[in-house]
């Protein structure tokens, strides 16, 4: 009997030891799994890559620095603007008579770029310069000067430690298409069934319109892309000379020409400038562009006198659009094919600067016209007092520019009161400026793949959590099963298997 009791006590002690050992192992195992899960899930220190694009516009140059997580290059929406710098002074095309100075004008912003990008990334950071309508016009008027300017900026950029990828004049189609890519990339519209935004860009010397359409009747206006597994059939057109500074020159030159021969032009009355505005201008400053014809005058200067009459201004501005000829089913203006606009549009650059200043980014077309009419009727002195901190050159032109924008959108691109609210005036999307530069870099670095990259079933964090929960469940079941098989028997003993 004693032996039997001793055996029983021994057995019980053994079972207890086993249970304790197994429980300790299970608990230790679980702690280990949780620890690994937590450590694995800890956000890794991101490694960023960088790219630089210089937007050499007609009125000014901007330097944009983009950054993206190194391992997520091909995911949509990953590239963001890290820094932007506006070069002081005018655009590079204004250096036509002193081209060698064009490069050095970029120094301050390029030095900022060196600071903004970690030194160990400098040599692998691509840098691109794209010049737009100002340089297109200079090339038309003085080809060798445009080449000298490009050479100067190219040589200057190569003195920096970045990976120089060239300085060139981009085409109007590229400018339109890459603006469209930027807007839709930043809005996360690629790789989904969602529709895309059209893009409207207004600069100093050209304007672009780009949107997805089914049928394009003219080859010059077609661009096809396959992005993230979807085909996009784009309509795009860039109107050289229809940026707001060149249109002002065209409009002034038309008024001067209509006066020419009748009287000596001493004062040029302009309904698009505020009453009381009175500035001496040279004829040269109006006629110094391929967008306006030549004029032979003996005088050098004239006085630009404001009248502040919006409806007359509207009539004058309308005259820069030639609407009578169209050999296609539909046209925008100047005989250029354009399908009817449809869907949402993002309107950026000067579209935004001007409409934002005039507080016209929301509301109906009728309301925009009546508010602009009121604004244009304000005397110049009042305007100057209302906005003492705004650059006088910009301030003087907002009545004209606002009128031009409304006319371009309505009479030029055929927007109506019904689809006016589909236009969104935007400066930035998230942290990044809307414009062609981001799309240009994404394209040249192949960062937008034609096909959507394969995605794992679960994101990494989700995968670790799921595996942990599953392991926990299995262990719990094991414990439960163990408990069931160790249930006391009728004789008060335990069956140990
Ligand atoms: N706060 C501001 C900033 C700029 N502008 C005007 O907006 C135009 C410049 O627009 P932008 O998109 O910078 O033109 P660019 O890129 O220089 O010209 P382009 O694209 O035609 O080469 C110029 O007329 C400038 O006077 C403005 O009215 N208000
Ligand atoms: Ca521009």
TrEMBL record:
E.C. number(s) listed in UniProt = 3.6.1.5
- One of its Pfam families is GDA1_CD39
Q: Which GO terms describe its molecular function?
A: apyrase activity; ATP binding; GDP phosphatase activity; ribonucleoside triphosphate phosphatase activity; UDP phosphatase activity
Q: Which residues form a coiled coil?
A: none
Where do the annotations place ATP binding? 204-208
Q: Name where it's found.
A: Membrane, Caveola; Membrane
Q: Give GO cellular component annotations, separated by semicolons.
A: caveola
- The highest taxon in the source lineage is Eukaryota
List of catalytic residues: 175 (proton acceptor)
**Record Gene3D superfamilies:** 3.30.420.40, Exopolyphosphatase. Domain 2
Family the entry assigns: Belongs to the GDA1/CD39 NTPase family.
Q: What does this protein do?
A: Catalyzes the hydrolysis of both di- and triphosphate nucleotides (NDPs and NTPs) and hydrolyze NTPs to nucleotide monophosphates (NMPs) in two distinct successive phosphate-releasing steps, with NDPs as intermediates and participates in the regulation of extracellular levels of nucleotides. By hydrolyzing proinflammatory ATP and platelet-activating ADP to AMP, it blocks platelet aggregation and supports blood flow.
Q: How does it assemble?
A: Homodimer; disulfide-linked.
Instruction: Please identify the protein, giving its name as recorded.
Output: Ectonucleoside triphosphate diphosphohydrolase 1
The organism named in the record is Electrophorus electricus (Electric eel)
